[in-house]
Design brief:
It is built from five helices and five strands, in the order βαβαβαβαβα. The protein is α/β, with parallel strands linked by helices. Keywords: Phosphoprotein.
Amino acid sequence: MIRETILLVEDNADEAELAELAFARLNAEYDLQIVANGEEALDFLFASGRYCDRPDYRKPALVLLDIDLPQLNGFDVLRALRSSAAYHHTPIAFLTTSDENADIEEGYALGVNSYLQKPLGFDQFAQLLQDVSHYWLKLNTRVH
């Protein structure tokens, strides 16, 4: 059985490592891929740049996207994905520390499916990752 891929776009190496630990601890049945900036995210998602020859190209079933990213921010990545027919129905969740109402409003206006604030503790972070992946990949009915 092929495991579904979750793409985490996170520039903070410590938070990316926490996500890896959380998925390992939860025995997650998903393949977690992590990229560090918006430009790399688009290369990964559209199999271009350094990912153009990736032999196991599979479109992620869920994208977890930070807002404050180098090169292209999360809003720019979201715009690019929502303007592509290939990613029109892919669940995209902002996973961020920002609680700015303007960021929340802009995210939803651009088509983000969920806006999640990163909790401070590891256990809460692990639970959030489990809950969001379970909801979007198990409970939610998706277009295939």
